[in-house]
Amino acid sequence: VALDKFSEQKPRYVRVNTLKIDTENAIRELRQEYEVQKDDMVPDLLILPPGADLHKHPLVTNGSIFLQGKASSMAAVALGPKPGWEVIDACSAPGNKTLHLASLMKGKGKIIACELNEERVKRLKYNVKLAGATSILCVSSCPPPICIRKIPDKLKILLDEIMRISPMRSKPSICVLLYVEVKHGDFLKLDPNDPSYSKVRAILLDPSCSGSGTAFERLDHLLPSHSAGHSDHADVRRLQKLAGFQKKVLEHALSFPAVERIVYSTCSIHQIENEDVVSSVMHLASSHGFQLATSFPQWPRRGLPAFDGSEHLLRTDLTTDKEGFFIALFVRKGVQKPKDY
Ligand code: SAM
């Protein structure tokens, strides 16, 4: 009962998918039913009253808005990708952050969305399509970040149709403005020195974690089967195993040669998955020229004082923010912070 009350008080957050709808238009539509405010830190994130049930709202079912919490929406903003960049989302399903990146990149650039689990890849592909982020094509003479050299037959028909109905004299060129490539596989198996990743400038790493900062996981701990079946020992072993994996994937992300910015995030409240993982890679990070940077400097809740520099880290709190989340931002020295973030 206490937890029900707890989640009832939590405002509902929705993130506007600006690839499909303008934020002001989304607000106008939602205001027909709800009070709506803009979040003061995350652009295009809206706050609705606790209890607002939007699951069947047409803006949700057609992919114009996504139900995404504030803390989780801070990760892509902290990464700060620019339109035209190439970015890897290393552990991406169901794709909340992948699609947020696509919005922040204003539909221009390339996102490699990697996911190991086959079932979750299906969900990811569905969401990418729903968000209208599969590939955004531009027909004209635009400066293309990525060009299609071999135009598929269906596109040729489309081009012929455009020629027929438009006043264009010469054959129009076609380019892909945004390309989200869903990669079913293990991020650890992507070779950082493969030329396909030589232009990747940012990596978002949101790996599997204990989920101890989410309402679902907290409720799980109340189930009788949980207390009967789980010993503290098993919990500690599980956390250690997760932390080992998290360290491995973070080290892998740090080894991509052209990467300038990396966000490591979890929805865990445990130091072992958060500050301890970051602290364990600091030596390697600095040997690759990375240092920690402060994302959202105005945010008051920072990392636990586990090591020098942990004040750069960001935490959200179960009591105050109703959600436990963690963000670490690594920036390669000498690389300017993108404007606007
Ligand atoms: N970033 C996602 C979002 O915001 O929607 C949530 C990611 S979830 C916390 C972690 C994901 O990482 C899971 O879908 C899991 O299957 C995937 N995963 C775990 N190990 C992986 C690996 N080695 N390579 C790629 N994906 C992996």
UniProtKB/TrEMBL annotation:
Q: Is Transcription regulation given among the entry's keywords?
A: no
Would you identify the family this protein belongs to, as annotated? Belongs to the class I-like SAM-binding methyltransferase superfamily. RsmB/NOP family.
Q: What is this protein called?
A: SAM-dependent MTase RsmB/NOP-type domain-containing protein
Native source species: Rehmannia glutinosa
Asked if the Swiss-Prot or TrEMBL record annotates the protein with the keyword Ribonucleoprotein, the reply is no
The organism that produces this protein has a lineage beginning with: Eukaryota, Viridiplantae, Streptophyta, Embryophyta, Tracheophyta
Entry annotation: catalytic residues: C267
On the tree of life, the source organism's domain of life is: Eukaryota
Give the residues the record marks as binding S-adenosyl-L-methionine: C91, S92, A93, P94, G95, N96, K97, E115, D186, D206
The SAM-dependent MTase RsmB/NOP-type domain covers which part of the protein? 2-333
Keyword list, A-Z = Methyltransferase, RNA-binding, S-adenosyl-L-methionine, Transferase
